[in-house]
Amino acid sequence: MLAVILNVNLQAVVIYEGFAFTSSCRAAWVRELLAPHLGNSPDDEDSTNLALPLARAIKSIRPELDILLLSDRQVERIAGDEDYAFISRVFYEVEEPLEIHLSLLQGVAKRYETPFFNNLKHYAQRPIGTFHALPIARGKSIFKSNWIRDMGEFYGINLFLAESSATTGGLDSLLEPTGNIKKAQDRAAHAFGAQQAFFVTNGTSTSNKIVEQALLAPSDIVIVDRNCHKSHHYAMVLTGAYPLYVEAYPLPRYSMYGAVPLSAIKQALLDLKKEGKLHRVKLLVLTNCTFDGHVYNTFRVMEECLAIKPDLAFLWDEAWFGFARFSPLLRRRTGMGAAAQLKQALSCPQYRHAFECQRERLQALAADDPALLQEHLLMDPDTTRVRVYQTNSTHKSMSALRQGSMILVDDQDFHHVEASFREAVFTHTSTSPNQQIIASLDVARRQMELEGYELVMSATQLAFDIRREVSRHPLISKYFKILTIEDLVPTVYRASGLQDYLAKGTAWSTVVDALNTDEVALDPTRLTLVCGHAGFDGTTFKNLLTNRYDVQLNKTSRNSVLLQTNINNTRSDVAHLIRVLVRISRELEDRLRTSDGKLRDTFNARVQSLMEDVPDLPDFSCFYPAFRESANSSTAEGDIRSAYYKAYDSAACEHIRLFDKTIDERLENGPPLISANFVIPYPPGFPILVPGQVITAETLSFMRKLDVKEIHGYNADEGLKLLKSESIGVTTPR
């Protein structure tokens, strides 16, 4: 077990029955490391058969490894026992050493094989005459040109030899794969713990739309995180489903949101049940992990939701979290990892007994009884259906080309939606997909199966190194801080009490317990670096890092930037980052030390503005009554599609500038202000307004305090685009 955890180069394990449980080497740190996986010492009567629990423990840590079992017992019965089904092969003692050797090689070769990439390489080496609509294929139009030959010199010949619009001759169709793309997708499904996997070549925005179009119809209700990626909001427009927005807990000091509390999701379901709408709720959509690293307890969320609505489907947008499958600490918090746990729990006799006891105890409670929010609800094994979808931006955390994405499916009822799923694929998939993106998805899967454990461990360690160096460096820590778990996850959502991965005295068992049980955890590879104490807003600091120091990053907030380590990073990258932070801190220190009092006062005022004078984050208000089925309903779902297309009628719209006094007068006296479109400021990058939403004073105040340059859906010259209430036909706001 210790070798499986520490030796990242292992590719297979051979277990020979007859070993002892207790090691002759007594080391406390070893026991602490292994305890979460092996538990306590087995009873004497079980000590003769330790191979099976050991194999299970190994598989739970590194599911990609092949496990071979050597036994001197009845190997024929073992081979036919379902409990041993996950073991690659069973041998009688060391009867056939050559077969053992060949089995080990075959297992590695199977993971190494990339069906589509191998065929594409073979295709590129064939002498082919192309008479189809792709002049760039074979590269002749490039290398024979007098003007664009430098493109060929830059990219190389193989890129063009591997281009084709053909789907035969060794290639395959992404729309209806039956050959090597299908084989590659099947390999990906196995690698990521799914029943099925589907490759997507135009990003997870498209993956999300495919899933939601397949599962939703007009007037279906979707419970969705209001701060999710814009692709989900647009999917509601496309499908005609009614979004019921649930709010994540706010972190206003850093202008960001965390995760949606489980109690808020349960409350939404219970309210819908009370109003007789539960049958219309088809899907729950959550982002896991969020941009800032908040990770749900996916099993707990699905378990309690299924206790209320047993056939609810789940879409986990794991655009940033695809790598987590290859971390034994994070895997259980992925959609597919939790789906496996759900099925295991539903087949467990002890779980069934616990459910029956709870059902008897709670049967007298009303559907809206507050006690249900505090209760850890259990699923009914007889009625629950496991229906889990997970979308990964493979290019964001693995070695795939940009826009490479996957849809992972573990749905017991997929046969009911397979036809609509295929139609959604046809709707959103290009008939000219990029062959190189498909190949890179195939290769990314190969890499993660063979060395993903090592790469993710390295990325995590580098993140810890950055945290440690920033916090202990006397100059950097004076102006910069990396937010801890305590900063980003309120106490109520972390029962473990873990405050920081690197806090002095933190036991390994506490970290494992937090990642296993806390309602919200923090992805250790995502580092929120607060730059406000140095007088920088996030955008300015990002530009400084990029333009002056060649350090690239993505997300910013009002007073922070987000750093993330991935499988591409090295210790040299970390050293470069630390050196840059030291230089910036030193320059700032020297400037303040030699400055007059006026400059220091200006600096302090800037820090005060960035760190203290922060705008409150607005919650979703409500849809205008015309876009709701009933203005008196206690549930807030709305017809976003009708509102969206109403804005196509220019006569139904008006514009008012953000600081115009007319807005304040209408907030006070009416008519109501109704958003005509999505308004998405970057940062924070989520819609603060959606079509049909009533604009409140809180939202208006937030917009007026925004000091960002990029706001999608808002033209400063024209002002807010609004729907005229008289054009909709209802003038009384809710």
UniProtKB/TrEMBL annotation:
<dbReference type="GO" id="GO:0008483">
    <property type="term" value="F:transaminase activity"/>
</dbReference>
<keyword id="KW-0456">Lyase</keyword>
<keyword id="KW-0032">Aminotransferase</keyword>
<dbReference type="Pfam" id="PF01276">
    <property type="entry name" value="OKR_DC_1"/>
</dbReference>
<dbReference type="InterPro" id="IPR000310">
    <property type="entry name" value="Orn/Lys/Arg_deCO2ase_major_dom"/>
</dbReference>
<dbReference type="InterPro" id="IPR050881">
    <property type="entry name" value="LL-DAP_aminotransferase"/>
</dbReference>
<feature type="domain" description="Orn/Lys/Arg decarboxylases family 1 pyridoxal-P attachment site">
    <location>
        <begin position="114"/>
        <end position="339"/>
    </location>
</feature>
<keyword id="KW-0808">Transferase</keyword>
<feature type="domain" description="Orn/Lys/Arg decarboxylases family 1 pyridoxal-P attachment site">
    <location>
        <begin position="379"/>
        <end position="569"/>
    </location>
</feature>
<dbReference type="InterPro" id="IPR015424">
    <property type="entry name" value="PyrdxlP-dep_Trfase"/>
</dbReference>
<protein>
    <submittedName>
        <fullName>Biodegradative arginine decarboxylase</fullName>
        <ecNumber>4.1.1.19</ecNumber>
    </submittedName>
</protein>
<dbReference type="InterPro" id="IPR015421">
    <property type="entry name" value="PyrdxlP-dep_Trfase_major"/>
</dbReference>
<dbReference type="GO" id="GO:0008792">
    <property type="term" value="F:arginine decarboxylase activity"/>
</dbReference>
